[in-house]
Design brief:
It is elongated and about 145 Å long. It is mostly helical and 158 residues long. The longest helix is centred in the middle third of the chain and has 49 residues.
Length: 158
């Protein structure tokens, strides 16, 4: 299979080479300068220079058009890039909708009766905080006085 591809590639190259030679022979005939006088040679050189100048002018015009098109493409791509960057999402407004309206919008016309969400919630019992007993402060002062009282406070804090 590789050999067949190689032979096809070589045949393609050969055909392109022959086609190039044919087109060059048609467009540019061979110059026969033998037996020409100096004036004829000078005229031939002048004609060739004129043709070269015309081809250079055409080449210059095409190059100028290409540079203009390149600049235009660059400007347009820059505008596209800027437009992509400037696109901002608008701020969304907050809409208040009741639970029934929300269910109606989500489920359609299937839900006709209102649903009580509070009935489905679990009830949580709150634990009452332990209240410290109010005692006479004078009794407390005597027991807390001295080093032992400070030790009790230190132990109670930990």
């Amino acid at each position: 299979m590789l050999k067949k591809a190689m032979t096809m590639l070589e045949a393609d190259k050969q055909m392109k080479k022959e086609e190039r030679e044919r087109t060059l022979a048609e467009r540019v005939p061979c110059l026969e300068m033998s037996g020409m006088s100096t004036e004829e040679l000078q005229n031939l050189c002048k004609e060739l220079h004129k043709k070269i100048d015309m081809v250079d002018e055409v080449r210059y015009d095409i190059a100028a058009k290409v540079t203009i098109n390149d600049r235009e493409i660059q400007d347009l791509s820059q505008k596209v890039f800027e437009l992509k960057g400037k696109m901002k999402r608008p701020n969304l407004r907050r809409v208040r909708v009741s639970a029934d309206a929300m269910l109606g919008a989500l489920l359609g016309a299937k839900v006709k009766e209102s649903v009580d969400f509070k009935a489905n919630l679990k009830t949580v019992k709150k634990e009452e905080e332990k209240k410290e007993e109010v005692t006479d402060w004078r009794k407390n002062v005597e027991s807390m006085s001295g080093m032992e009282g400070r030790k009790k406070l230190f132990d109670a804090g930990q």
